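The following block was generated as part of the benchmark described in Methods. Ligand: pyridoxal-5'-phosphate.
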Amino acid sequence: MVQIFSFHIGQISTAQCLGININQEIKLPNKKQTSKKMKNMKKDNSKKLFVEACKYIPGGVNSPVRAFNSVETDPVFIKKGKGVTITDVDGNEYTDFCGSWGPLILGHANDEVISEVQKVAADGLSFGTCNPLEVEMAELFCSLVPHADMVRMVSSGTEAVMTALRLARGVTNRRYIIKFNGNYHGHSDSLLVAAGSGLLTNNVSSSKGVTEKTVSEIIVLEYNDLDAVAKAFDEYKDEIAAVIVEPVAGNMGLIQPQDGFLKGLRELCTENGSCLIFDEVINGFRFYCGSFASVCGITPDISTFGKIIGGGMPVGAVCASKEIMEHLAPMGEVYQAGTLSGNPVALAAGIKTLEILKRENPYPQMAELAEKVATEINDYAKEKNVAINVKHFMGVFTIFFTNKEQLVNLNDVKECDTKRFAEYFRFMLDSGFYVSPSQFELNFVSAVHSEVEIDKFIATVKAFIDTL
Ligand SMILES: Cc1ncc(COP(=O)(O)O)c(C=O)c1O
């Protein structure tokens, strides 16, 4: 847990970035990597901007992982994107597999989405009142997510999860929440928690500023360990408000739920009168035009969404049955609010994105491409005897630098060679591919990636393997 969160909230050394000599070439990991397959990229403008950024923004970034600390290089500043390509301030182009960390399933600057946003923005950016797009989004969302009778729109995934926990506690009148080691649910205080091994540990917060008291109401267990969940229910009977889970875990790299894990969580929550919360901030609309709950056939009590449903704009959502949602203010006593919640411009992007996904159904194609990445890279790594295990599910994949075959929880992925991942990241970046800058993240195939980009990507990863 500590390790995962360090990529989201890790300390950034401002001195380190202020100390940059902007005339210095980007350091390459080793001599072999200056192979002719790599472009000789100039990054002067990005470097200059980073120096300026570090003067005014902590660590030079507005979200820690963007600082590229774990991949030991300097960030690139992106000025535009179109389709699969992003362009930095020095004019370098990259084929993007990060997609703004998930939202851009239609690729960058989709024409229909941009035109809808421009149209709506021309009539005003925010009213702080009811607006018709809120109704349109709620109807569309509830039609695509069958277990959602009602939905409340917020402005981020963090906010959605915060609301979900409050709602679960409000509905059950209980205080404890079970979460899983290596699942990330945003940066609200109570979820910034690390735990040692064992079932019921003394929880230690993974961020300064989060008090022990706050995290003492979170029970952290290993993902895929249903027995541990059962034991926790025995120990804390009638005190557990909710179990929150990323159904397909993405924040320790891709780890899939083992057979029976989600079903077991559902049964334990039902037996004990607790809420099952599916955090679908990444999963939602990523694998199917709707929730992952529909794909796996398990109905949570409360779900959270974000990323794709905003089409690149700041949108999150919490949804549940009418009975549960009516506990939210102004109907019920669980308070939740937001100046920019239901913002018309943000919803315009989200609605158009969902409409396109419904119309185009790009999911089978994305899954096929991700499978091709995994199969070809795994085969090549095996042939070359290099420790790589590419995991994929539908249109997402993670290249784990490990010999380990079975990856079921954070302890397994912690053993990955993060130094080698950093070398790989820099090689890919300098070869014109922007992959997610951490070993413990997903890469996203979008609806606009084609076999052409995938083949080039695979060839470049193979070229990296050849340098080892
Ligand atoms: C599963 C999950 N939940 C919640 C969040 C928090 O979302 P946001 O960054 O929009 O606050 C994230 C962010 O990556 C996430 O992956």
